[in-house]
Amino acid sequence: MPVFRLSEQPTFPPPQMASASGLLAIGGDLSLPRLLNAYASGIFPWPHEDSPLLWHSPDPRFVLLPKELRLARSLRQTIRKRRFELRTDTAFERVIRACAEFPRPGQRGTWITEEMVKGYCELHEAGFAHSVEAWQEGVLVGGLYGVSLGAAFFGESMFAHVSDASKVAFACFVRQLERLNFAFIDSQVHTQHLERFGASFWSRARYLKELRLALQTPTLHGRWRFSFDELIDAEKA
Questions:
Q1: Helix extents (H) in the chain
Q2: What is the pLDDT of residues 7-44, one digit of tens each?
């Protein structure tokens, strides 16, 4: 399969034309129109150092259905202990920068470049990108961020400076998305972390079909302000 070079127009070739590795195109920018078009088309940016901007649409895709969330008993107990205060969209830039700086096994550097930070902060200001934060005694100790379009949430990255901080934030957030009738959470590629929560592989064809259906739902854009108290009380140890 050829790898396409993007023009100045915020358009993409069909995602079905991606290479076996999922690489579809190079170049372009992280402007608001291009990012929104990418996610709506089943495509996402994944930069690499010393390379042009790379755009991917992998096959298969790793996806979590909110209703199929699996929680270990120990995590349920941690949630009910209320060790963390959970907030949404109060520290988006701090979350994305913490994700960029968080060390990961087998990974040198970060794919969250300064251009990525700027682009996703613009998405956040426009009401399409969101952060979920875990706080302890007024200190940000964990969280995650991603993009929301229609009934789909595209998870980008998470970090934790305190054990279980990001897991609690993610678990409670998924419960909230279930209540809002979100169709799926796209984690893009496989991670053991998401596999333990119940994510599974979808073919690209299935993913694109389900994405088209999810985009028929109006996007819940703007700043999110969720209360997680009732969700935490509902978790049975």
A1: 32-40, 73-80, 92-101, 114-125, 165-179, 192-197, 204-214, 229-234
A2: 889 999 999 999 988 999 999 999 999 999 999 999 99
User: What is the model's pTM?
Assistant: 0.94
**Long-range contacts at 145-149 (CB < 8 A, ≥ 24 apart):** 145/92, 145/95, 145/96, 145/99, 145/120, 146/185, 147/35, 147/39, 147/120, 147/123, 148/219, 148/220, 148/221, 149/36, 149/39, 149/40, 149/214, 149/215, 149/219
- Residue type (1 letter), 8: E
Helical spans, DSSP H, in 67-190: 73-80, 92-101, 114-125, 165-179
Closest CA to 220 of 166, 183, 191, 168: 183
Mind listing the pLDDT tens digit for each residue in 111-159? 789 999 999 999 999 999 999 999 999 999 999 999 999 999 999 999 9
**Token pair in block for residue 42:** 């089943």
Residue 230 class from Cβ within 10 Å (0-12 exposed, 13-18 middle, 19+ buried)? exposed
Query: What is the tens place of the pLDDT at every residue in 163-205?
Result: 999 999 999 999 999 999 999 999 998 888 899 999 999 999 9
Which among 20, 21, 19 is positioned nearest to 3, based on CA atoms? 19
Contact 48, 26 (CB under 8 A): no
